[in-house]
């Protein structure tokens, strides 16, 4: 049985680690596009040559996500032999929930703008 | 024609691999140590391990060769999506954490997952779902307003003979 456990561990390292390395390398090499991650979608009337607007809601969510992920991963690295995954503090959950709510609020706002602009365009026709 | 040959060349090593592992499993089942029940457990365990490994390797190799396209993994409507990106980050962090703990504990027990961590993942996944909903709702109707009815054909009064 110990050989089976050892083989299973090796398999997880190869498959899961390989998948993570492939996806991460594709993100860094540009194979998975990150263009427009921090910008707002263009409105219907906006010209294609106009530069896309920077989105603070997306920027704050990116920062919160990366900070929360790093914090959690460090907790696991510091105590890997615990019986359960480290508990995420309620403050962290609250902060993350707030950050996502801000992002979704911004998205609703831009969707509303898009919809009203297209309705105006249609009514003019 | 050359495509078929290429496919056949790829299939042969896969079939050989499966046959070799089936023979190995059979040998473990017949000549392995322990009682019959233990040997059966070992055989099923190794067979599942090999099957999962082969599936995983096929997916990995196809991703590396470019046959499974990941270029739009984080894209929506031609630009990168923040909700997809954060979901990817959280999935990788939780998976990596679980993996680190299982390795550190020498595979003794699957670690428990606290409720707050599940909430964290839930927030992340529901943000993606809600974002998808907003995006689908904001798309203007592609058909647009209904076109005006065509004008009625002119009435021909009297004979139109030449």
Main traits of this protein?
heterodimer, A: 125 residues, mainly alpha, 3 helices, 69% helix, B: 162 residues, two-stranded antiparallel ribbon, 4 helices
Commentary on this structure:
- The complex is a heterodimer of chains A (125) and B (162).
- Chain A is mainly alpha-helical and 125 residues long.
- Chain A is built from 3 helices and no strands.
- In chain A, helix 2 (56-78) runs antiparallel to helix 3 (90-124).
- The longest helix of chain A is centred in the C-terminal third of the chain and has 35 residues, at 90-124.
- Chain B has 2 domains: 9-70; 71-137, no CATH class.
- A two-stranded antiparallel ribbon of chain B has the order 1-2.
- In chain B, strand 1 and strand 2 form a beta hairpin.
- In chain B, helix 3 (82-104) packs antiparallel against helix 4.
- The longest helix of chain B has 30 residues, at 2-31.
- Chain B is flat.
- The mean pLDDT of chain B is 80.
- The chains are: A mainly alpha (125), B mainly alpha (162).
- Chains A and B meet through helix 1, helix 2 and helix 3 of A and helix 2, strand 2, helix 3 and helix 4 of B.
Distance between the termini of chain A: 74 Å
The pLDDT mean of chain A sits at 85
The total strand number of chain B stands at 2
Helix tally of chain B equals 4
Report the uncertain regions of chain A: none
- Give the overall silhouette of chain B: flat
Strand content of chain A: under 5%
For the largest interface in this structure, which chains are involved and how many residues does each contribute?
A-B, 70 and 68 residues
Query: How big is the Rg of chain A?
Result: 22 Å
Classify the beta-strand content of chain B into a percent band. Answer: under 5%
Proportion of residues in helical segments of chain A: 55-70%
Share of helix among residues of chain B? Answer: 55-70%
N-to-C SSE string of chain A, H for helix and E for strand: HHH
Radius of gyration of chain B: 30 Å
Main sheet of chain B?
2 strands, antiparallel
Backbone shape of chain A = elongated
Mean pLDDT of chain B: 80
The structural class of chain B is mainly alpha
How many domains make up the coordinates of chain A?
A: 2
């Amino acid at each position: 049985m110990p050989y089976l456990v050892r083989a299973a561990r090796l398999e997880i390292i190869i498959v899961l680690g390989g998948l993570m390395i492939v996806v991460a390398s594709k993100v860094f090499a540009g194979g998975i596009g990150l263009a427009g991650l921090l910008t707002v979608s263009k409105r219907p009337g906006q010209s294609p040559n106009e530069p896309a607007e920077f989105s603070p809601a997306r920027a704050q969510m990116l920062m919160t996500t990366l900070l929360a992920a790093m914090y959690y991963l460090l907790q696991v690295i510091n105590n890997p032999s615990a019986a359960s995954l480290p508990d995420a503090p309620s403050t962290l959950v609250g902060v993350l929930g707030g950050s996502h709510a801000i992002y979704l609020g911004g998205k609703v706002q831009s969707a509303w703008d898009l919809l009203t602009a297209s309705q105006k365009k249609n009514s003019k026709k | 024609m050359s495509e078929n040959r290429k496919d056949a060349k790829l299939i042969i090593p896969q079939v050989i691999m499966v046959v070799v592992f089936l023979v190995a499993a059979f040998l473990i089942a017949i000549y392995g140590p322990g009682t019959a029940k233990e040997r059966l457990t070992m055989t099923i365990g190794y067979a599942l391990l090999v099957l999962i490994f082969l599936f995983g390797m096929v997916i990995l190799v196809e991703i590396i060769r470019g046959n499974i396209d990941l270029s739009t993994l984080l894209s929506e409507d031609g630009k990168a999506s923040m909700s997809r990106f954060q979901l990817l980050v959280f999935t990788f962090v939780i998976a990596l954490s679980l993996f680190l703990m299982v390795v550190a504990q020498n595979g003794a027990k699957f670690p428990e997952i606290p409720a707050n961590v599940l909430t964290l993942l839930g927030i992340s996944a529901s943000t993606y779902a809600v974002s998808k909903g907003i995006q689908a709702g904001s798309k203007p109707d592609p058909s647009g307003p209904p076109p005006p009815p065509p004008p009625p054909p002119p009435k021909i009064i009297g004979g139109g003979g030449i």
